[in-house]
Structures are given as structure tokens and as C-alpha cells.
Amino acid sequence: MTGSTPKPPSPHDPDQSHDLVGIGIGPFNLSLAALAHGVPGGLATAFYEQHPAFHWHPGLLIEGATLQVPFLADLVTLADPTSPWTFLNYLRSRERLFPFYFAETFHIQRAEYDAYCRWVSDQLPGLHFGHQVDSVRWNPERALFEVDFTQLDADGEAEALGRTYTRNIALGVGTEPYVPEPLRPLADAPHVPVIHSADYLTHRADLIDADHVTVIGSGQSGAEIFLDLLRARPAGAEKIHWLTRTEAFAPMEYSKLGLEHFTPDYTRYFHALSEPTRNELLPRQWQLHKGIDTDTLSAIHEELYRRTLHGGWPDTVLTPGVRVRTAGRVATTKVELHLEHLQQGARSRLTTDAVVLATGYRERPVDRMLAGLDPYLRHDSAGRARIDTTYRLVLDASVTGSVYVQNAEKHTHGVGAPDLGLAAWRSATILNTLTGKDPYPQPRRTAFTTFGLERQEAPRIPAQGQALTPLTQS
After folding, report:
1. Of 313, 337, 380, 445, which one has the fewest beta carbons inside 10 Å?
2. Given this model, what pLDDT does residue 10 score?
3. Are strands 194-196 and 354-357 parallel, antiparallel or unpaired?
4. Which residues pair with 175 in a beta bridge?
């Protein structure tokens, strides 16, 4: 599907307004921008990102590491396979379709996904990098949102201030690295070898040279980093600990029916559950998205086994069921971890030269940015934002515009919120609701599993959609 897009209003002209302003340009808002570009009749859009260019987890683009979703989970295909922004069209533009065809690769490398997204971001109009959004307010006189931003120079310093107006907003500010409380003082201190996995490649050479390294966290990132360090260190002198709170280095649920938890059908089912039920259910589903790819587990075991061929065992310790109680420095170059085994109740200490925290990510706080909307926001019993089925924050009825969220709705929409496989579908849902039309028809059924006693089929046009006439440029 393609459509003619009107020339977007200038992001610096306060007298013009947009149909949609996106805050943050990660994969999810990039998906929304790409599909918005193809809406028939066009939408006036602008997307703002404080970084100078698109980047996707650059510290984790480890050589050979692959996506955990198929290449069809690109920015647009599962909503519009005819879009010019598909991964296959990217390959075509690079004259790589035949090599990809013969490679028979279903799960592409992360570095290739990053390159594909940068290809889209370099060509797609309406993207404004080097722009930091500072605040969002509702202007009742104009019935529009005011978005204040700072334009940054190449060094990230403030260069100019600006304001724009929009009928709708899409929050896609992403997540930020999570550091457990006992390790925050060390991670924040300069010259202390405690880093988050998000910065792994930046520090990889130093970690390989370190005498002893400890990896904490049992998800995919922790497994990939352990394997990469293991392969880079000499046999018999590996000196790596791998610790995790989970009860096992468990494989990710990847059965065909298990994957149906990442379908629109399950998302609708989860949203319809009561808030207490959703709260209770989410922690029990960790293996759907926090486990380890079975190929990575196999590669780790094969590498460990290979190092036993001439007798002896590799100098590695892999221990699940362990938490870090406290941590501190020893002398000036080492870290001491105080550990507790959760099942045994036993405690011990571990001295290490470097720590890699593969402890995941948390939603990036937006309270300060949205402080101007706080009087209009509606919250659940836990103080979290209420979000309707079409990914809109529930606001006071006096606000006629909509604020959509991307990857900030796990508590209302379930484990699929951060999954790349649902990106295009969610973007299409947002655009269908925003326009009040059906530019991207949605399938009524997406899973063989019926998650409730009655199947909940999707309406062709969202029932709560607000009709919108796209702005035109004179």
C-alpha cells in the first residue's frame, strides 16, 4: 500500500500543526512513521529523536547474534507487505536478494536488522534527529497538543528551541538499561569495571583482557555475552562466572502454539482480563520473553564440551538461583560480590575483575515530559497509566486528541508489548484508530488457540476510532 504524503509542516513553524507527532525514533515509532507514509491521502507527521541518527542496541550487535523473530517481523510487512519499506525491498535496493534467497535465513543477524532500519530512517521523510522533546501540554483553546523541543548540535549541545502543535502524539521513547540496586553505586562510579550489557561492545576488549569476569543475568543477552567471552579466552584459563536469579538457564518458549502468545488474538484476550489477573499472570510468563534461544544454549554447551576434549574442565562457573545482596570495591581494581543462593539459603563472596550486568531494561520514565498532561491522565490502582485497546492513554474527556504509546503497555497488553513481531500490527492499529478509517485492514483471527471461552475477533475499524481528516499543505 502506498499513498501520497503531503509536505509535512515545518517542525519549527508554530503556526502549523500536524496530524501526528512521534516522540522517539526506535524501531516501533520508525514502523509507525513508515506506515503513516503510506496512508492514502497522506498524513502530516513529524517524528523527533534526540540522538543524531538511528541506532538500535549498538552495544549488543555481537558478531553472529541474530534476532529472535523472523525477518518478516520487519517494520511494515505484517501490516503491509507491499510497502516500499520492507526488509525484502531493502535487500533488493542493495542487490542482495539472491544471496539472501540462497542463504535460506529465517532469522537475520541483529547487525543486519540495524542496517535495514538505518536505511529506512535515512530515506523516510518527516524524521528529525538531534531534536530532544522537553515537554507536552494540551492547549484547550487550539484543541491541540503543544510539543516543546530543543534542537541539538553535533555535540549534543542545545542549539535552538522550538514548538510544534499536533492533534495526536505517539510515545516511542523506548526503554533504558536496568541496574539492580546493590550494584548501582558501582555502575555509576567512574573507572569501576561494572557495565551494563547495553555497553558490552564498547568495553569488550577490556573484558577479554580482564583476569576474571562475572556475567549476571540469564536472558539472551547474558547468554550471548558469556558465549562471546568464552570463545575469546584461552582454554583452561577462561575465568568466567555466570550467575542468575532464575532457577535455571532456561530455554525460551519457542513452540508453535507457545508463540501464539505474541499474536493480536492473545493481546486482545489479555487486555480484557481484570487488572489483578493481569498483574498475577505477567511474572509467570517470563520464559516467553526472558529465556534463552535453544541454539545459543547448544552453542554454549558445545563450546564448553570442546574444551574438555583433552581432559579437565573449563575454568567457568555457571550457577542459577543466585542473587547479589551487596557489592563493593576491593582495592582499586576489583569488585567483591556478596551472593546468596535462594534455594540453599547459603551465602558466599566472589571477587572479580569486571562485571557485566545482563539485567534487562525498564520503561524509560516520561513523567517529566508529560507533567503538563498529568491533570488529564487516568491511572489504575497501582498508579500506572490506563491504556485502552487501541494503545491510547486514557485521558480526561475534555482532551479531544490522543496520546498513543509504544512498548509502554505490558501491564495492559501483555508480553507482546516489546516484541518486534507485533510492531507493524500495533502501528496499523494506531493509524486505523487515528484516521477513523481502515487504511491497513486487520485480520479478524491470528491464532489457532482460543484463549478464552469465547473468541474475541477484531473489528475492521476500531470501535473507539476518532474520525480524522488529514491536514493538507497549502
Report:
1. 313
2. 55
3. parallel
4. 363
